[in-house]
């Protein structure tokens, strides 16, 4: 597959942007005396809205079009649907085998963590969260990179959705490490490194693109990623948003996220 240097640099750049947004969450956590639960609730709802809208309206549509182009209709549609639910199943299996106390999507209040200062269990939680997030970010990096190569506007949309999703994940890594060690630099470093796996996914994606990428593989990857993002939104982001705030704040955030993503897709069309 022949990829121009400008397109290549753009794809790597937005993948890096999406991954390093974990560092934004880490920095925000350090300067918050305690978690602003209403803001956190709205932000998580917003992130869920962005991810659900872009997954169902844009990513799955692209996957279906690619698979129908390769396999024809309706076979391509069936395969896209199967890949979508396979992505959901994979995300569910990962979450099932991650203890809830150490799951990076199970956000905890900063004030609760202060009570556990210097607790080695809290440090283990942060390090485990960093590892799990790194594993989650790897296929996301491939998805951002592949989408940017195929369609720059779509790549930007997916990168923005993933970047918003990664911000609270950065908090979930840095806060427990910080309150366990008292070292801001170490907490930021672990959060930062967990986001770099997004770029690693893009590098692997680059070598795959050179040899194996066709419309079928592109469609399968995209449909699966759409399923993963929808599962994360419905099973983790929205319930957590409701836990940390009022029901309507989470829903307003959800709707706003959808509206912002819809507007961005219209402007980039």
Explain what you see.
- The protein is mostly helical.
- It has one domain (5-268).
- It has 9 helices and no strands.
- The protein has helices spanning 5-30, 37-71, 75-96, 110-114, 120-150, 152-181, 184-211, 215-243, 247-268.
- α2 packs antiparallel against α3, α5 (120-150) packs antiparallel against α6 (152-181) and α6 (152-181) runs antiparallel to α9 (247-268).
Low-pLDDT sequence parts: none
Task: Give Rg in angstroms.
Answer: 18 Å
Overall geometry: globular
Decide which structural class fits the backbone: mainly alpha
Count helical runs: 9
Number of domains: 1
Oligomeric form of this entry? Answer: single chain
Q: Quote the beta fraction.
A: under 5%
Share of helix, binned: over 70%
Count of β-strands: 0
- What is the N-to-C succession of helices and strands? HHHHHHHHH
Separation of the first and last Cα atoms: 25 Å
Described by strand count, sense and barrel closure, the largest sheet is: none
Q: What's the mean pLDDT score?
A: 77
Keywords:
0% strand, globular, 269 residues, 85% helix, mainly alpha
Sequence-ordered SSE layout with sheet pairings:
Elements: H1 5-30, H2 37-71, H3 75-96, H4 110-114, H5 120-150, H6 152-181, H7 184-211, H8 215-243, H9 247-268
Helix pairs in contact: 1-5, 1-6, 1-7, 2-3, 2-6, 2-8, 2-9, 3-8, 5-6, 5-7, 5-8, 6-7, 6-9, 8-9
Quickly describe the structure.
This protein has 269 residues and is mainly alpha-helical.
């Amino acid at each position: 597959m022949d990829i121009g240097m400008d397109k290549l640099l753009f794809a790597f750049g937005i993948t890096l942007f999406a991954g390093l947004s974990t560092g934004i969450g880490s920095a925000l956590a350090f300067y918050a005396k305690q978690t602003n639960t209403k803001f956190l609730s709205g932000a998580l709802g917003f992130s869920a809205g962005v991810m659900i809208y872009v997954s169902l309206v844009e990513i799955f549509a692209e996957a279906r079009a690619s698979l129908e182009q390769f396999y024809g209709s309706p076979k391509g549609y069936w395969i896209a649907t199967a890949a979508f639910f396979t992505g959901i199943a994979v995300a569910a299996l990962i979450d099932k085998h991650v203890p809830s106390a150490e799951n990076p999507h199970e956000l905890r209040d900063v004030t609760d963590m202060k009570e556990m200062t210097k607790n080695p269990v809290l440090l283990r939680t942060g390090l485990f969260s960093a590892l799990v997030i790194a594993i989650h970010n790897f296929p996301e990096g491939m998805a951002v990179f592949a989408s940017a190569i195929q369609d720059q506007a779509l790549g930007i949309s997916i990168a923005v959705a993933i970047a918003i999703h990664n911000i609270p994940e950065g908090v979930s890594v840095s806060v427990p490490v910080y309150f366990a060690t008292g070292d801001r630099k170490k907490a930021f470093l672990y959060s930062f490194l967990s986001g770099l796996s997004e770029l690693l996914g893009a590098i692997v994606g680059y070598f795959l693109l050179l040899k194996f990428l066709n419309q079928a593989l592109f469609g399968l990857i995209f449909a699966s990623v759409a399923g993963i993002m929808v599962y994360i939104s419905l099973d983790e982001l929205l319930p957590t948003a409701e836990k940390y705030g009022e029901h309507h704040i989470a829903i307003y955030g959800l709707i706003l996220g959808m509206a912002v993503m819809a507007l961005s897709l219209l402007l980039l069309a």
